[in-house]
């Protein structure tokens, strides 16, 4: 065998994004749960129901689905708001629960609802035809934001217990308005944990989502957001009916924790060549991302977006924000009015945007001088095989390059050497 020299190549690219160009048309939503309501209600009267009075028992392993559903069905019998309370204990359900307009489902902080079979959604929104029957499925014609309003889910823990089907969303809430999810924990989902697509006036706060199950690691895990913000377009998982391209609008996600999940917040449908189908007015602030496998935030097909005060730590340090190749990249004009600032990744005060369509990383900082201090180093195999994760280095601070992981038959790796490829550009080639 001839002894050949295998020279690896690193391309170090510095992208300096001037944040001022990304702050046009800044829009902030202020949604107060206890203050003025965005969505009108039929009545200010409230009716209270404890699920144990309908037969639910949090001290055994019997199926409690029928008892809890009977409590939720009370919303169909009254024009008043109802509060369904789940006391401390562990409750098992073998199928999906259905929640209707003007309902608060409140779990004690020590209450746990477990999906005993792990198949199908745990909770979906329901709505009625004019004759009082449930309306659902492909024959439903109630589009836009008309199917439900004024729903709150709070407290306790939801164990989705999914076991490997991509479409098993924990919650599914299409075509409605006025949703609040707060102070709750969700674990072990395989699909989208909170599929709040094609709805408006949504507040998700103080929620913890962790330990997402990998359902199809070679197919769709990189599109498996635990909070999903799609439009009602063809190909939804599950499909929202009617398919009328209704987008998300007026969404706040704040003070939440995402830990050991595949993807954090985002979408992979929508737009369809029409800007009116894009999600609008999205605020993502003060959230914590820990050990995210793919990306923390993906603003696919959304406009008027604010992302600030978020932090990401763990193995995947480069993707506090990511763009898929199916959408316009963040640097294009459709996202020129997004406002991204004050985010940190592994204690660095910058945001790294990955534009997969252009196969490059972009750094966004509050201070241009800070941006100048950091370099994103991407490793290239130079004809070899294997992969190596990019790394962040700070100018003037010594740091060892990653150990070579590439392989090339008949070649021997002998080290790196750096030179400037073009003196007019901020590109360095390291061989």
Provide a quick synopsis of the model:
This protein has 431 residues and is mainly beta. Helix content is 3%, strand content 36%. The model is unreliable at 9-43 and 323-337 (pLDDT under 50).
Number of helices: 2
Q: How many E strands?
A: 37
Strand content: 35-45%
Q: What is the makeup of the main sheet?
A: 10 strands, parallel
**Radius of gyration from the CA trace?**
24 Å
Poorly predicted regions are 9-43, 323-337
Overall mean pLDDT: 76
Strand order of the largest sheet: 4-5-8-11-14-17-20-23-26-29
* Envelope shape: elongated
**Strand-pairing-aware structural class:** mainly beta
N- to C-terminal distance: 24 Å
Helix content: under 10%
Written account of the structure:
- Mean pLDDT is 76; it is low at 9-43 and 323-337.
- β4, α1 and β5 form a beta-alpha-beta unit.
- The relative contact order is 0.14.
- This protein has helices at residues 65-72, 368-372; strands at 4-6, 9-13, 16-18, 46-50, 81-86, 89-93, 97-99, 103-107, 111-115, 123-125, 148-154, 157-159, 171-172, 176-182, 185-187, 194-195, 200-205, 208-210, 225-228, 249-254, 257-259, 263-266, 279-285, 288-290, 295-297, 302-308, 311-313, 321-323, 339-341, 344-345, 351-355, 360-365, 374-380, 391-394, 411-413, 418-420, 427-430.
- It is mainly beta and 431 residues long.
- Helix content is 3%, strand content 36%.
